[in-house]
Structure formats: C-alpha cells, structure tokens
C-alpha cells in the first residue's frame, strides 16, 4: 500500500499511510480534531501520542471529504504507489505547515482508462498541540484530485510535487496531442478570501492548507513553448493519443520505447516563491514559469535544479557552473540583473515579475517602488494654520491702529484754511 515517513533530523517523527482518515468514528459520529483522534485510538493521555504517530496505520477504510471509501475499492490502491512523491511546505515545529503525499497510480500502465487507475494527492496539516506534541491532521480537502474534465484518461497525477506555504504544483504526463491541456496543475493554498489584490502582503500562515485550483488551472505544453516535446517519435505520439480507440496502452507494447512516459517533461518540478520550475532534460532547459502559467525565463542546464522550502531563491547547474538566482526586492521589477522601482499607482508584490500591476479601483501608491496599494483619499484643502491666522489678525489690527493714529495726527497738525487766506491777503 505504501507509506510516507516524516523525519525530524534523523529521528522518525511520524508515519502516514493511505488508511489515515479525515475523521474518526466516536460512537455513531465521525468527528475530527486532536481530542477525537485520541479517543478513537484509545489514547487516554498525551504521553503515548508521539509513539503512536510513528506507527503506520494498516487497517480500516479511509474516510475522505464526504464519503467512506468502499471496501471493494480498497484493492484498487494496491498499485497506486502511495508515497511516490512527497512535499513538506514548512517546519515541523511551527503552525501552517502541510505534508503532501502523492499516489499517482500504476505508472507502468500508460494511458489506461481511470476506472481503476488514477492519481491522487493526500494532504495533512501540521497542528501544534503543545511544545512536545506536533500532530498531523488530514486536511478536509484530501485527497486532492485533478480537475474533473481532466480525468478522462490516466496521466499519473502526482508523479512529482512541489509546495510552499502559498502554492502547490502537481505534475502529470504532458500530451503531444493536446498541447493546450495543463500537465502541471497549480493550486493556491492558505488563501485569504478577504484579501484585495495588491493589499495583502502575507496570507494567514496559521490556516490549514485549503488548496484550491488556481484561476489559471495549470501549465500546458503550449505555455512552455517550443521546443518542448519536439523530439516525439511517431511511436510515442501513438502511445500518447488521448483519443485512442484502445482503453489501455501498456508501456511494454514496444520494448524499444522503454519507460519513456516517466521520462517526459515534468518528472522534476519545483516551487520557489511564485515560480514553478520545470526541468526538460531532453532539451537541456529549465523553464521558470509563473503561477499564472506565463513563461518568465528559460535557462540552459545540464545538471540539477535546487530549491528550498518556503523560499524564493533557487539554483541550477550548467556544465561545471552552478548559478544561484534570487528575485528583486518586492516593489521592484525587472530581469535577473535589472531591478527598477514600479511607477506610482502600480504595485509589485512579486520580485520576479517583469511588469507591475495596476492598483484596484480607488487604491493607489503614493511613491515609486511601493509594493502595497493604499485606499485613495482626496488631498485636504490647503488652509491657514491658527498661528498664521493670528499673525494676520494682529497685522490687520496693527495696520488699522496705525492708520487711525496717523489720521488723527494729520488732523491735528495741518494748517487752518482761514489763516491761510489771511496770509495771502
């Protein structure tokens, strides 16, 4: 059935299996939570929790979002390779981390109808119960499935995965015959639905994974652009014909092809910040895609691609040289070597973008390079301060008194008209 082991350093932290459940039967009710889990496992206190988590659940029927897996279907998972790919989005000691484990199905049965062979991704959320107990709780979205309209045929959903706090990328087989159909599915995780674009810097880290399909769904061969899959032979095209009349195409039908479907682009992917990294070993390239499915940059490489957990930095090897890449500061845009502050009324919360985004209506930025939009407010009317008003009042009063005094003095000092006339006579 397969298992996934989580280590903290070189010590086994816990074991996950396909039989883990989203909720636990307590009497006639299926409830979730740490206390309910302990009651269902007959753990009377917290002392046995850590030891119990190191054991692999080997029986029972998984209960997913709103149904219990029928016992008759449990056997279908025998060859689903649970644990084929794993991803951890953060630290074991802090909240907000999620563990993803894939079960891509039987990858030796290529292009089989998905009745019995299909891929799934299972998710557990990190719950910090105390300083000594960190407990994994299956996410209510688990298992994550490919979009409904992409389940028409088997494509090894979960052949590789990569995750951060904010994004999950899940790889499947790319199809030459359908270049516009996503083969890497992108999910937005820890999403704050109240967040206005350009206003929220960091979604809530303490929420559960809550991964929802991105508005762009995913990345297709067409998004990656030429020369992806140009090397396909006629035999390979026949094997990847999604609309073949055959319900099942075995990989050993032509021994000369070998296990070619598992070497297709997408065998190794990564997530670094808002970037989805896709290696293309056949063409010697690594594609840096945005989570919006846009090609940001293409690199030549001949070795490996490295990226960390919850970081925007990554590195790749080209012959005997390793290049370390990191983004512009947020609020700046440009290529790898040119970072320019964004213009006013625009913002860039992503240091990898080449173009900035316009602030939402009634929001703007007050200075260049500002990475967050603020609500626009009409500038206050320019008026006089109280001190200036007093100065003007005193000036007017002083001028008035002075003019009055000058007028009185003039009246007193000027000669009389009659006396003037007498002098003339």
Give a description of the structure:
The protein is α+β, with helices and mostly antiparallel strands. The protein has 2 domains: 77-326, no CATH class; 328-406, no CATH class. The chain is built from 7 helices and 25 strands. The strands form 9 sheets. Strands 5-6-7-8 form a 4-stranded antiparallel sheet. It has a 4-stranded antiparallel sheet with strand order 9-10-11-12. A 4-stranded antiparallel sheet has the order 13-14-15-16, with no helix packed on it. Strand 20 (332-333) and strand 21 form a beta hairpin. The longest helix is centred in the last third of the chain and has 28 residues, at 386-413.
The side-by-side strand order for the widest beta sheet comes to 5-6-7-8
Quickly count the domains: 2
Instruction: Characterize the main sheet.
Output: 4 strands, antiparallel
Residue share in β-strands: 25-35%
Task: Give the C-alpha Rg.
Answer: 34 Å
N-to-C CA distance: 139 Å
Give the overall pLDDT as a whole number: 81
Question: Treating each run of at least 4 consecutive H or I residues as one helix, how many helices?
Answer: 7
Structural class: alpha+beta
Secondary structure: helix percent: 10-25%
Shape: elongated
Q: Please give the number of β-strands.
A: 25
The parts where pLDDT drops under 50 for at least 5 residues are: none
Primary descriptors:
alpha+beta, 2 domains, four-stranded antiparallel sheet, 27% strand, elongated, 7 helices
Strand-helix topology:
Elements: E1 3-8, E2 11-17, E3 24-26, E4 29-31, H1 34-40, H2 49-53, H3 71-74, E5 86-88, E6 98-103, E7 120-128, E8 134-138, E9 160-163, E10 167-171, E11 182-188, E12 212-220, H4 221-224, H5 234-239, E13 269-272, E14 275-280, E15 285-290, E16 295-300, E17 305-307, E18 314-318, E19 321-325, E20 332-333, E21 340-341, E22 346-347, E23 357-358, E24 363-364, E25 374-375, H6 386-413, H7 417-424
């Amino acid at each position: 059935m397969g298992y996934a082991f989580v280590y903290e350093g070189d010590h086994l932290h816990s074991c996950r299996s396909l039989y883990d459940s989203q909720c636990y039967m307590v009497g006639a009710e299926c409830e979730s939570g740490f206390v309910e889990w302990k009651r269902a496992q007959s753990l009377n206190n917290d002392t046995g929790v850590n030891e119990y988590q190191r054991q692999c659940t080997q029986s029972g029927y998984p209960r997913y979002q709103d149904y219990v897996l029928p016992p008759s279907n449990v056997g279908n998972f025998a060859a689903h390779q649970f644990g084929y790919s794993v991803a951890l989005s953060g630290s074991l000691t802090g909240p907000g981390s999620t563990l993803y484990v894939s079960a891509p199905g039987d990858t030796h049965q290529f292009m089989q109808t998905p009745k019995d062979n299909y891929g799934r991704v299972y998710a557990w959320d990190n719950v910090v119960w105390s300083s000594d107990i960190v407990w994994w709780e299956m996410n209510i979205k688990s298992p994550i499935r490919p979009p409904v309209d992409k389940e028409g045929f088997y494509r090894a959903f979960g052949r590789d995965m990569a995750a951060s706090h904010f994004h999950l990328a899940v790889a499947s087989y790319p199809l030459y015959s359908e270049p516009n159909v996503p083969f890497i599915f992108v999910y937005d995780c820890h999403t704050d639905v109240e967040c206005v674009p350009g206003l929220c810097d960091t979604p809530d880290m303490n929420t559960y994974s809550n991964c929802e399909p991105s508005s762009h769904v995913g990345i297709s061969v067409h998004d990656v652009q030429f020369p992806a899959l140009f090397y396909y032979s006629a035999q390979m095209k026949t094997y990847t014909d999604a609309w073949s009349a055959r319900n099942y195409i075995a990989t050993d039908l032509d021994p000369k092809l070998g296990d070619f479907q598992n070497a297709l682009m997408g065998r190794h992917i990564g997530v670094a910040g808002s970037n989805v990294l896709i290696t293309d070993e056949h063409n010697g390239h690594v594609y840096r895609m945005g989570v919006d499915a846009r090609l940001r940059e293409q690199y030549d490489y001949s070795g490996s691609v490295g990226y960390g957990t919850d970081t925007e930095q990554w590195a790749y090897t080209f012959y005997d040289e390793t290049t370390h890449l990191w983004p512009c500061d947020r609020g700046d845009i440009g290529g790898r070597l040119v970072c320019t502050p964004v213009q006013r009324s625009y913002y860039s919360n992503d240091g990898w973008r080449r173009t900035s985004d316009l602030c939402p209506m009634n929001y703007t930025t007050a200075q260049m390079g500002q990475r967050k939009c603020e609500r626009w407010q009409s500038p206050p009317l320019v008026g006089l301060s109280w001190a200036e008003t007093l100065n003007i009042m005193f000036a007017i009063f002083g001028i008035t008194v002075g003019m009055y005094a000058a007028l009185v003095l003039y009246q007193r000092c000027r000669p009389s008209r009659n006396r003037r006339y007498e002098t003339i006579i």
